[in-house]
TrEMBL record:
It comes from the Eukaryota. This is SMP-30/Gluconolactonase/LRE-like region domain-containing protein. InterPro entries: 6-blade_b-propeller_TolB-like, Sensory_adhesion_molecule. Keywords: Signal. Residues 1-27 form the signal peptide. One of its GO terms (cellular component) is endoplasmic reticulum.
Length: 328
């Protein structure tokens, strides 16, 4: 019998196949979450990063369509049996950056500012670092990073206010001074995976350790790097990882001098180092709503929350900040 794409049986089969992921998503959304979740309504489907601003009791979130928003958390939120869905309020919608995405963010508390990695995610033709005052939301500086094709993905800030922005396409790091002036590139052969396809998404999540070094993850090959920024040559070392793979790791959050959270797939992994980040062990994992895609981690009142990129619903898009409770 000839096979026909238009036959009733074929169309029924295609319907059933497509219904499986839809049914999984619906089931996951209706299920009671095993940990605490902050839900909030948003105007957009994609929220790349979220960081807790403790002084102002709010989550700050980056818009993939460009911009920054806040989700204020009232003091009494959670006192009732059923928490109200929070609301996102737009703080920044910069006309000069129209058509570009706001991606990784970091709160620079000593200088009362938010640093934002900006990128043209479709064409990779524009990349920048922006800084905004946390009180007035005036733009403090906007630094263009590259004229070549690149992908500014995440940002960290050191004790002196220098910013470090990862390039997920060309596997390098831009260094920008506290005054917004471009300083230098950090490049190293260790950043380049041997297999070409593992460089499709390269250097991604980045954090600054108070002992004077950066910790950076390579998303597709799962490598973790230690970069000494106190040395002029920015010495790069490969951190040896035991206890599991870090492939598809995305955003990072330092919990303490010895513990680090990796957001990504699976939702979260907890790492511990007892030797100054020469080696690490994956000591625990957390599995959240996989269909929403965990992309960043933050800490609120000692509890880890994972930002999930995808919002659900229409016209209001409901997003989720999910508490990560790690288990061995």
């Amino acid at each position: 019998m000839a096979f026909s794409l238009c036959s009733t049986k074929t169309l029924l089969l295609l319907f059933l196949i497509s219904a499986i992921p839809v049914a999984f998503i619906i089931s996951s959304e209706l299920a009671k979450p095993p940990t605490h979740v902050y839900h909030y309504h948003s105007s957009g489907f994609f929220r790349e990063c979220a960081k807790w601003d403790d002084l102002n009791r709010r989550f700050l979130v980056s818009f993939m369509e460009g911009g920054i928003g806040e989700i204020a958390v009232p003091e009494d939120h959670g006192s009732s049996s059923e928490e109200a869905v929070l609301k996102e309020v737009t703080l920044v919608k910069d006309p000069a950056l129209a058509g570009n995405s706001s991606l990784g963010i970091v709160v620079d508390r000593p200088r009362n500012r938010l640093l934002v990695a900006i990128s043209d995610i479709l064409g990779n033709k524009y990349n920048a670092l922006a800084a905004y005052d946390l009180s007035t939301w005036d733009r403090l500086f906007l630094t263009t990073l590259d004229n070549e094709k690149a992908f500014a993905d995440d940002v960290a800030v050191d004790a002196e206010g220098n910013a470090y922005v990862t390039d997920a396409k060309s596997n390098k790091i831009w260094k920008v001074g506290a005054d917004g002036k471009f300083v230098s590139f950090i490049r190293n052969p260790l950043f380049i995976a041997k297999e070409w396809y593992k460089n499709l998404i390269g250097l991604n999540g980045i954090v600054y350790h108070p002992d004077g070094f950066l910790i950076v993850i390579h998303t597709f090959n799962g490598m973790l790097y230690k970069i000494d920024v106190t040395k002029e040559d920015h010495e790069v070392k490969l951190i040896k990882v035991a206890g599991g793979s870090l492939a598809f790791g995305d955003g990072l959050e330092l919990l303490s001098p010895t513990k680090l959270v990796v957001a990504g797939n699976p939702s979260g992994r907890l790492l511990e180092s007892l030797d100054g980040w020469e080696t690490v062990s994956v000591v625990a994992k957390f599995k959240g709503p996989a269909h929403r895609l965990a992309t960043a981690a933050t800490v609120k009142d000692g509890r880890v929350y994972l930002n999930h990129m995808l919002g659900m619903g229409y016209p209001k898009k409901q997003h989720a900040l999910v508490e990560a409770v790690f288990s061995i």
